[in-house]
Design a protein that fits this description.
This protein is mostly helical. Helices cover about 75% and strands about 0% of the residues.
């Protein structure tokens, strides 16, 4: 059976991985450097992760490990909470530093792309989808809502600023994106009334 895994080592490995990705990129990430930074042996890392892709996928997924699905009773409030949480995550220097290298590496490595999509992106999109689906049930969003498009609209502006324009990632952005969803996907009668 063996001894139980050390949660501190798990956290140290993931944090070291994120910091090294932010500093050097994924291509330059070396397991021995992660081990040194995390103060663990390489064997400790390889017992947890079979490959560098798996380690990177787990590290990136840890950015949204504590994501919770708000249910304030208001679709508007729930969307704002989720978007403000995303702003908090991507405003951090490590998180912001991870994304450019991650996107580049995903375009070159299908295994890494799959690991990130199945961990990080899937978790984030599930939380957002739950809020959107509840918004449809409440009548705040139209019943024929294109869920995939709405999810892309929620994430697109944040990543566009992070990766392309360098514009501010702040609560104003979070609220603006929430407003786009609420107005752009409002039921037909509600859209006419607001004009």
């Amino acid at each position: 059976m063996g001894r139980p895994r050390d949660g501190r080592a798990d956290r140290a490995i993931l944090q070291a991985t994120l910091h090294l990705i932010a500093e050097r990129g994924i291509n330059e990430l070396r397991i021995d450097e992660v081990a040194d930074r995390a103060r663990v042996g390489k064997a400790t890392i390889y017992r947890r992760y079979r490959s560098k892709d798996e380690l990177v996928g787990a590290a990136v997924t840890s950015l949204v490990s504590d994501i919770s699905i708000p249910d304030t009773g208001s679709t508007e409030s729930d969307l704002r909470k989720l978007m403000r949480n995303a702003v908090r995550v991507y405003r951090g220097s490590v998180e912001a530093g991870v994304m450019p290298g991650l996107v580049d590496a995903m375009s070159r490595d299908p295994g890494l792309a799959r690991a990130v999509r199945e961990g990080f992106l899937e978790r984030r999109r599930k939380a957002l989808a739950a809020v959107l689906e509840r918004g449809v049930e409440r009548g705040d969003l139209r019943p024929d809502l294109d869920l995939e498009l709405a999810l892309d609209v929620l994430g697109g502006p944040l990543f566009y600023r992070l990766l392309i324009t360098g514009g501010p990632i702040d609560n104003e952005l979070a609220d603006g994106v929430a407003d786009l969803i609420l107005h752009g996907f409002a039921p037909a009668g509600a859209r006419r009334r607001s004009k």
